[in-house]
Amino acid sequence: MTQQTRRPHSRRPTLDDVARGSGVSKSTVSRVINGEDKVRAAVVERVREVIAELGYVPNSAARQLVTRRNNAIAVVASQPQNRLFIDPFFDLHLRGIRKELVAHGAQPVLLFLEEPEEYPRVGDFLGGGHVDGALLFSLRSDDPLPGMIDKLGLPAVFGGRPLVREGEPVHDHVYVDADNRGGAREAVRHLVSLGRERVATITGPVDREASAFDRLDGYRDVLPDASPLLVEHSDYTRQGGVDAMAALLDRCPDLDAVFVASDLMASGALQVLRERGRRVPDDVAVVGFDDLAPIAEHTDPPLTTVHQDIEGMGRLMARLLFSRTEDPPGPGAAAAGPLSSVVTPTRLVVRESA
After folding, report:
1. Cβ atoms within 10 Å, residue 14
2. d(CA 133, CA 129)
3. pLDDT digits over 212-222, tens only?
C-alpha cells in the first residue's frame, strides 16, 4: 500500500496524469500541447497550469516526427552570465519564460552574449535548425542580433522595446514591454504631490536601453524645466546607484527627492543617503522602479516603487512566440502572423521611502 502511494511521485508524469489533473480528456490535452484550435481559452490555461505543476514533458521524438519541430526555444541575453543570476529582475523574467515553455512542452536553450566575437557562434546556432524560435532581451542599441534574426527568418519576440536611434531604420519586431514612461510619470508626480521641490533622477543606461530612455522621458514630462544638474546617468546596478547618488549629493546638496530608475540602483542610493546622514523620507524621498520584492520590501525604509509584472511579461513573450511558430518560415522569409507588440501597465506601490 505504501509502495503504491509513493509510486506516482517517483515516476515520470504521463498524459493520463495531466488529463486527470485538468478534468479533461487525453485528446483535449493533446490538442492543447499541439497548439490546435477549437479549445476554449480557460481549458488551455488549466491544462498548461497542470503541465507546469506536474513537470510533464511530452514525448519530443514522437512530436517532432509529426510536426517537424525541435520543441526547443532559444533564450538569448546580451548580458554577462553572472549578472543574470544575481539580478532579481532577470531571475523573474526567466522564471516566467520557463513556466510558459514547460506548459507548451518546449525546452529553453539559454545563450549568453558577453563579447562581440561570440555573435557569429550564436548566429550559426540560431540558423542551424536547432530551435523553433527565439526570445531575446537586454539587447544593446547597436546589437546585431535583430538584423541576424531578420535574415534567418526565425520567429522571435523581444523583451523590451528595441532602442532605435534617430536616422536608423525601424524594424517591425514584436516585443513585450512595460509602460516605462507612464510609470515614471506616476512616480515623479507622487514626489511632487508630497511637496518636494528639488526632484532629481538616476537613470538607467539611456544610450543602450529603451526602458531607461523612456523612464527619463517620464521624469521630463512632469518636470520639463528641471535643471540638468539633477539628472545623473547610471547603469541599472547597485554600485551604479551608489555612485550616482553620491554624485548628485555633491552637486546638488539641497535636493529633497530622487526618482531612481530601478530598485537595484535605489538600494544603493539609500545606502549613500544613510551614510551622508540624510533621513528618508524626511530629508529626501526616494521612489524606485520594478517592485522587486527581495529588494523593495527589505530596504531601510521599505521602498516606494513602480510595479511591473516581470514574470508575467516573460510568460507573455513565450505565448506570443508560440503564436508565431505554427508554420515556421524559412530563411529570408517574413515571420508568420501579423502580431502586435504588447505594452503592459504599471502601478505605483507606496511604502515608507516616499
Report:
1. 14
2. 10
3. 999 999 999 99
